[in-house]
UniProtKB/TrEMBL annotation:
Ranges for domain Aminotransferase class I/classII large: 8-265
Keywords: Aminotransferase, Pyridoxal phosphate, Transferase
Gene3D superfamilies in alphabetical order: Aspartate Aminotransferase, domain 1, Type I PLP-dependent aspartate aminotransferase-like (Major domain)
Cofactor(s) listed in the protein's UniProt record: pyridoxal 5'-phosphate
Name of the molecule in the record: GntR family transcriptional regulator
One GO BP annotation of this record: alpha-amino acid metabolic process
Classification via PANTHER family: AMINOTRANSFERASE, GNTR FAMILY TRANSCRIPTIONAL REGULATORY PROTEIN
GO MF assignments: pyridoxal phosphate binding; transaminase activity
Record carries keyword Ribonucleoprotein: no
């Protein structure tokens, strides 16, 4: 994804991201000197009017979007929106870097389509990896770069000086033997159970005006705790060894300051319930005051 960004933009260029956006991506964009324009996105989808207006007026050099099981919200875009984004990319000739690392972690039986599916003219650079499905340490990803393929290959060569072929071959064999598919099915069944259990607990222990978004896939839960400064809450929790991320980390606007992201990748063990209980207790205290 970094290679894709560097293939189509330079320092000082404007990149559109959907907002809220994974803080790691915002950090990468800041490190490589890209300016960011945030396009609001909620559970009902991305604000395509704002996107089109930004494409017309803001000299957007590229967009960096996740359509499926976004981090931090767990939201996914509908197929009409995916198609509309692909069409806007062609219309305004702006590349879309599609970061699709969570697509395979669908808690439903079907894996959702990417924006790339609707890309008729090669403006979408579709990126993913096995970081979320197997292990981030493998550092293996892939990219379908459309009309930017040559640029991408040149940039990759300059960046990485080659690939870890033994690990790639081992992974290819793992996939070909069917072990990867079996693994994904197992992980997704577990994630679905985790999601149900975490959400049931949060609903039972948070005030009724708190909101917990139930995602159709991915590894995170997005909470809205109206009027709570979640950064202070997250700091307080971290002193007790409970690690959550405050909404403020995912946007330069103040729109997510009462939101919180929690990870639900771990089985709901008694240790996890102790942590969730601490979160709910402190959130309840702050919501009542
Ligand atoms: C949206 C998103 N993109 C990319 C990454 C990082 O992926 P990788 O380890 O493949 O670089 C993450 C990790 O959390 C992520 O949430």
């Amino acid at each position: 994804m970094l290679i894709a960004l560097e293939s189509v933009s330079q320092a000082g260029d404007v990149i559109a991201v959907s907002s809220p956006c994974y803080s790691g991506l915002l950090d990468i964009l800041a490190t490589i000197g890209r300016a960011v324009i945030e396009i609001p996105s909620t559970e009902t989808g991305m604000d395509l009017v704002q996107l089109e207006s930004a494409l017309i007026t803001q000299k957007v050099k590229a967009c960096l979007f996740t359509a499926n099981h976004q981090n931090p919200t767990g939201h996914s875009l509908g197929n009409e929106q995916k198609q509309a984004i692909a069409e806007l990319a062609s219309k305004y000739q702006v590349p879309i870097i599609e970061d699709d690392v969570f697509r395979e972690l669908s808690h439903q039986r079907t894996i959702p389509l990417p924006i790339k599916y609707y890309d008729l003219q090669g403006w979408v650079i579709w990126c993913s990896s096995v970081s979320k499905t197997l292990a981030p340490g493998l550092r293996i990803g892939w990219c379908v770069a459309g009309r930017f393929t040559d640029k991408f290959i040149r940039q990759r060569q300059a960046r990485t000086l080659g690939v870890n072929q033994p690990i790639q071959l081992a992974l290819a064999r793992y996939i070909a033997k069917g072990y990867y598919a079996t693994h994904i099915n197992k992980v997704n069944r577990a994630l679905r159970t985790n999601s149900d259990q975490y959400i049931a607990f949060l609903h039972a222990h948070l005030p009724t005006h708190a909101d917990v978004y139930a995602p159709s896939g991915g590894l995170v839960l997005w909470l809205t705790l109206p009027a709570v400064d979640t950064q202070t809450l997250a700091d307080e929790l971290s002193e007790k060894g409970v690690y959550v991320k405050a909404g403020a980390q995912f946007s330069s606007t103040r729109l997510c300051n009462d939101c919180l992201r929690i990870n639900m990748g771990n089985l709901a063990s008694s240790a996890i319930y102790v942590q969730l209980k601490q979160l709910c207790k402190l959130a309840r205290k702050r919501m009542n005051t």
